[in-house]
Write a structure and sequence with these properties.
The chain is of the alpha+beta class. It has ten helices and eight strands.
Length: about 270
Amino acid sequence: MAPPRGRASHGSFMAGNTVPGINSVDHALRLLSLLAAQAKALNVSDMARGLALPRPTIYRLLATLQAHRVVVPDGKGYRLGLGLVQLGEAARAHFDPGELARPMLEELVRESGETAHFGVLDGDRICYLTKVDSPHSIRMLSSDGWRGPLHATGCGKVLLAYAEPALLDRIAAGPLEAYTAHTCTTPEALRASVARIREQGYGEDNEELLEGLICIAAPVFAAGRIVGVMSVSGPPSRMAERERMRGLVLEAARRFSALLEGEAASAA
């Protein structure tokens, strides 16, 4: 799964997905998206051209948005206001990606028969926010909140592949602890592994953290950036169907990315 290229999308509003009967709401959201995509304030003429709307309509929209402090004047133009920051913080307070991922992880366990994780970057470590156990008696000994090394886990290497290059530079500079005989312990080996992940769109941990444990991981994106990783882990004897397992993980990560982007309905 490759990350979206170019400037991050600001939702589907600019595509003109209008719901009949609420055109004014659609226009207002498209206007906010237009302002969010710009590095400078826009004047009314710019907005009218960008949205293909009459200037009087733009003025009415701006009056309403200013009343709610989500748009403010800036010189001869307008920019986004602090009201949006407050809304964003409120949304963030109610947003729990780990719990949002749980139903998809449960489905991934049902389909694969193996333990599934959703993890995020936490400083220079991978942190598993959510784990759903395999039904097998022999399973991975991890838990919600467990933190592991980036260079020796499938999830960690996927994060390295799509995060800012400075993170890979910092981790590759070492020390790269050897957890097993298969761990990447040189900068060259780690960079080569990360390059393969970028090329193929998924990562694998082939007994690099623990002997007898294989992990297949795929990136989760939102707004053009990696926000986490989904994975399945199990012993080699139960992970023999690599292609099938890769497909399951990639599809789960794709669906979760679509959900985070608010596009689950169109992706179904």
